[in-house]
Amino acid sequence: MATTIRLRDEEEEMLKEVALEMMIEKKIRIKESDVIHTLIRKHLKDIKTADVMKYRAEVLGKDD
Questions:
Q1: Which of 7, 23, 45, 64 has a 20 to 30 A CA-CA distance from 39?
Q2: DSSP states of 26-53 as a string?
Q3: DSSP letters of 5-29?
Q4: Which residue did the predictor score with more confidence, 2 or 28?
Q5: Alpha carbon distance, N-terminus to C-terminus of the chain
Q6: What percentage of residues in the chain have a pLDDT greater than 90?
Q7: Is the dihedral of CA 55, 58, 62, 64 positive or negative?
Q8: What number of other Cβ atoms are within 10 A of residue 48's Cβ?
Q9: Left if phi > 0, otherwise alpha if psi is -120 to 50, otherwise beta: which for 15?
Q10: Are 2 and 18 in contact (CB under 8 A)?
């Protein structure tokens, strides 16, 4: 099942920069979606609820 998820401007810029650096390093086209999928597969298992709550507080300004 495919899902569309929007990135915030700051994260989008970070993603573009990383993908561009990888393309320059390897001299091949690396899609931003490949970077996102790699990030998810490599790190999703390690994320804890506390990490999400910290992100929500620090980046989103939410007080849960």
A1: 64
A2: HSS---HHHHHHHHHHHHGGG--HHHHH
A3: -PPPHHHHHHHHHHHHHHHHHHSS-
A4: 28
A5: 30
A6: 91
A7: positive
A8: 8
A9: alpha
A10: no
Domain ranges of the chain: 31-64
Amino acid, res. 18: V
Torsion angle (degrees, nearest 10) of CA 56, 61, 63, 64: -20
Contact partners, residue 35, CB within 8 Å, separation at least 6: 15, 18, 19, 22
Asked if residues 50 and 64 have their Cβ atoms less than 8 Å apart, the reply is no
pLDDT in tens, 27-52: 999 999 999 999 999 999 999 999 99
Q: What's the CA gap between 45 and 13, in Å, rounded?
A: 24
